[in-house]
């Protein structure tokens, strides 16, 4: 028998089978000729991410220091584009999620990230933010009880939708259209010359205003510029449900109440023979996936952060009444009513409330989706409990815990969002290194992570590690 050389090994898949079974071998599906039909996961990622960062953290920062730190948002979004693509690379090639891939290399890595994602998202800061904006819109109401109602509605939506991803994609599409309307109207009616001048100064004279903002807020803003934390990891699940690459062989997540019975999910993943035909298909899939993320996730996120920050600068910068509380959005809305008209203030609050509601739905979805996929693929492979039923239970568990948090009195959104964002930044520090390790060892040489992308992973690893350490030190000093 001929010996297998190291060169032969480099040209093959090398997925460890100690913790999970070996994947099945199938050809990589052909990319569709009309690729617009499968555009969506990047849009969902951007739409779910258009939440705390875009409507709260970055506008608040702009109200305090102007636009001089917007470069941090741009850097954060582009780093997350590279992170998302390394997450997608593994799923495109294997049909497995990144968490499942981590489990192949370490028995409980998936559990670690699922727990961290839960810790980041147990605090219902997005639901309370949406509730607060509804009280500004209608001039009455208790944000706590409104937030509880929002959580219950989210639970019903996610567990009654026949195909969860399809419902989420439609909800996010409506949200993006609403935010686009707000941006266009803001450009026409609200943003003045002084803000455009400040944007120019921010480009030529960027700053790192840590003394004014503190490391926790700055780290949270960078980590949540776009997605952040567990949401990046969920790109695996979303592109798989959309049928990207080898994900086309894996059943979609459906409702246990209204959806069709799901296929047998016990086969963890698939690999393809790295011959010329499959590699040609891979190159088309990889190009499409990169462009889809760039033209949806990156473009939508950067445009939204820039313009919501400009709107906050035009209405709030230099106002001593603005505090580190969600109530600054009430001041922003009333200022818009003075500058433009009552209608614009109400529109701002209405779109903000809907945007944060949709984000809260996306966050409950991806938190539960990551955990249900990890539990089923790693710990309950032979159980008769389906992934859909696990998802159902986890969604309502998260809703119930959020209600308990609100009833306990922890209802200050900005504080909850900073806690969540710091946890997300710490997660990104860890999985930046794991993604590089996994994609440089598990995949054939022809589709492995390149040196340029590996360098970005190293930058992400060091940057988020640095920010995590200094944030912890900053918070300890305040104790």
From TrEMBL:
Sequence intervals crossing the membrane: 38-58, 65-83, 109-138, 145-166, 172-191, 294-317, 346-368, 389-408, 414-434, 454-473
Key words of the record: Membrane, Transmembrane, Transmembrane helix
Origin: domain of life: Bacteria
Recorded coiled-coil stretches: none
Region (Disordered): 1-26
NCBIfam families linked to this entry: Nramp_1
The protein, known as: Mn2+/Fe2+ NRAMP family transporter
Organism, scientific name: Kribbella orskensis
